[in-house]
């Protein structure tokens, strides 16, 4: 009996334990975003400097993702995810030992290399443990785990920074990742998932020649610009535009990730219902993406918000829409290419997100230094619709 045909409770329980790695992934990643104002002040960094730190993570993430996907397909889920979590946990701990811009860039580069393996491994796990109609919802569960990391980062990192110093916050999140490795290996040994599938490089080459993969990657890059904006810059935006302190901003910063979890669940549930009613999987994903992209248009009004609370509401709507879009985008390769190369196919989308974030982050920092908040918000609002136009024009989700 394969994992995908095992008892539903068992399949979802094992997946739930696995996706905790995604929560830790984003907890590690977002600790710096939460503490950016403190770190910037201590090291004398500008928004543009911070943008380059984000860009260093992003380019490493983008370049490493395909290799991480191939490695996961080659050596199997358990060994690959254990290696990735161990490396990113050590990189997170090392961030707390840095003394300037160069050290931060180096640590974020290593973090990007390691965390590039997280989402491809999640795609592999979702394909391995869930049935086709459930996979969008599986990605929604993974999005909920990501959102959990985003929710926990502001209060945990801020509390540790205020009471014990910002450096200890990075050490704490790193140790949490190392503990997860033991929990996952204990759990996975109790579920038979079979040997790793045999890897044939020609299969990867065949996928790379399929124009649908590049359409999926381009659509993902466009749709995730708003996600990159509001996950990396929300705390900075609330402090600079609405005059909040770090602690006050932390009280707002956990709210958008909650809406990301709701959006991911709604997007996965919507496409699952369409599939169970007879809609082809790719078409169902596209319809969910189109609905989410229309909703995202409203977020161009965020800079007109009269207060921090209204700004937070607009940011929450933006992340909700992108999350609903994202869970379906990341399921498209699983629908189109199957399980033997699931991690590699998803890794190309991960890479496209990293490239987009690398390109856009310094630009966002430059624009925010010049208070061009309306242009930044408008960019994040329209790119999901542009992503849908790309999928439609290439007939890649039909």
Can you tell me about this structure?
There is one protein chain. The chain has 398 residues and is mostly helical. The protein contains 17 helices and no strands. It has helices at 8-43, 47-75, 77-95, 101-115, 118-129, 135-164, 166-188, 201-208, 211-223, 225-242, 246-253, 255-276, 281-296, 308-329, 332-337, 342-369, 373-394. α1 packs parallel to α6, α6 (135-164) packs antiparallel against α7 and α6 packs across α14 (308-329). The longest helix is centred in the first third of the chain and has 36 residues, at 8-43. The model has no long low-confidence stretch (mean pLDDT 85).
Give a short overview.
The protein is an all-alpha fold. The protein is 82% helix and 0% strand.
The N- to C-terminal Cα distance equals 32 Å
| Mean of residue pLDDT values | 85
The largest β sheet comes out as: none
Overall structural class, as computed from helix and strand content, comes to: mainly alpha
How are helices and strands ordered from N to C?
HHHHHHHHHHHHHHHHH
State the helix count. Answer: 17
What overall geometry do the principal axes of the alpha carbons give? globular
Please give the radius of gyration in angstroms: 20 Å
Q: Hey, roughly how much beta strand do the residues contain? A: under 5%
Helix content: over 70%
> Would you report the number of β strands?
0
Low-confidence stretches: none
């Amino acid at each position: 009996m394969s994992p995908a045909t095992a008892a539903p409770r068992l399949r979802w329980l094992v997946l739930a334990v696995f996706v905790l790695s995604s929560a830790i992934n984003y907890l590690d990643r977002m600790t710096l975003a939460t503490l950016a104002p403190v770190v910037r002040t201590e090291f004398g960094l500008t928004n543009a400097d911070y943008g380059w730190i984000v860009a260093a993570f992003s380019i490493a993430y983008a370049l490493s993702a395909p290799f991480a996907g191939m490695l996961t397909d080659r050596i199997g889920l358990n060994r690959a995810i254990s290696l990735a979590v161990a490396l990113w946990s050590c990189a997170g701990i090392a961030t707390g030992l840095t003394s300037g811009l160069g050290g931060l860039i180096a640590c974020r580069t290593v973090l990007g290399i390691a965390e590039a393996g997280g989402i491809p491994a999640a795609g592999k796990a979702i394909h391995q443990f869930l049935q086709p109609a459930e996979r969008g919802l599986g990605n929604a569960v993974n999005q909920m785990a990501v959102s959990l990391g985003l929710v926990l980062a502001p209060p945990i990192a801020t509390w540790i920074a205020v009471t014990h110093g910002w450096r200890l916050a990075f050490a704490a999140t790193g140790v949490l990742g190392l503990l997860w490795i033991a929990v996952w290996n204990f759990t996975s040994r109790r579920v038979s998932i079979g040997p790793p599938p045999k890897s044939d490089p020609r299969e990867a080459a065949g996928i790379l020649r399929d124009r649908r993969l590049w359409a999926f990657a381009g659509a993902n890059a466009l749709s995730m610009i708003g996600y990159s904006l509001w996950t990396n810059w929300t705390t900075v935006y609330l402090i600079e535009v609405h005059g909040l302190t770090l602690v006050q901003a932390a009280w707002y910063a956990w709210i958008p990730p909650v809406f990301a979890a709701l959006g991911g669940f709604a997007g996965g549930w919507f496409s699952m219902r369409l599939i169970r009613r007879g809609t082809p999987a790719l078409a169902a994903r596209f319809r969910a993406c189109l609905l989410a992209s229309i909703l995202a248009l409203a977020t161009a009004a965020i800079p007109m918000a009269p207060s921090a609370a209204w700004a937070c509401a607009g940011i929450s709507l933006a992340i909700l829409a992108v999350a609903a879009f994202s869970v379906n985008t990341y399921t498209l390769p699983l629908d189109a290419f199957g399980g033997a190369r699931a991690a590699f196919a998803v890794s190309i989308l991960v890479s496209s997100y990293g490239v987009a974030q690398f390109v856009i982050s310094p630009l966002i920092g430059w624009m925010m230094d010049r208070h061009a908040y309306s242009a930044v918000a408008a960019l994040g609002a329209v790119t999901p619709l542009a992503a849908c136009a790309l999928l439609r024009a290439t007939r890649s989700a039909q």
